[in-house]
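Lab channel / #folding
Pinned by the channel admin:
"Please post every new chain as: sequence first, then the structure tokens as a reply. Keep commentary short and put observations after the output so the thread stays searchable."

First post following the new format, from NK:
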Amino acid sequence: MIVVTGGSKGIGRAIVEKFAKDGVDVAVCARNLESLQELKDQLSQYAEIHIFQADVSKKEECQKFIEEVKSLQKPIDILVNNAGVFVPGAIYEEEEGAFEMMMQTNMYSTYYITRGFVHQMMENKKGHIFNIASVASFMAYTNGGSYAISKHAMLGFSKCLREEMKPHNIKVTSVMPGATFTASWAGVDLPEDRFMKSLDIADLVYSAYNLSNSACVEDIIVRPQLGDI
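Reply from TO:
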């Protein structure tokens, strides 16, 4: 089974669709239950789709999601920490609370949910964790602000976790896309083909997962063909 956070749209949804259509059972959470139900209706012909409403910026909802997935009593082969939020702004003038909100959504949820599922993977001596970060994980850019801080933290988390999991045969991959056509870019006056597609990211995750046990893609960096926006 694959577990995906923030899977009702964008990159998360594309990953859910990619694996479900290959017959992999899915547990997915998002804030919008209606979108999750639509996803389930679309994909139930291919695999079991278990949907859970959760706002992972809140620790108690992360814990609730973890317990709900565990109650399915299915082995977790893949965890995709995808839930995230982007609000542009400079560190010195962001709205009060922007830092906390983006850290809680992007980083804290990744930490809590990984800790919730990784012990089962360790017991089974297999698993693959994908953390959906960003090119903002390793570079600074104007108006990156707290978003870039949170994504830098995600990359550091992945590196530490990867070292810890090596003896347990668990792979950890950081996925760092550039501009991808998702709701985060809504309203931007640029043609859609200037962006990557969410399916591009899903294809990379799927390919990285399907390597042999002796190989691990540690970092995936992918940008639009014409470069960053």
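NK: The helical segments are 10-20, 33-43, 59-70, 98-124, 145-165, 198-209.
TO: also worth noting, The mean pLDDT is 94.
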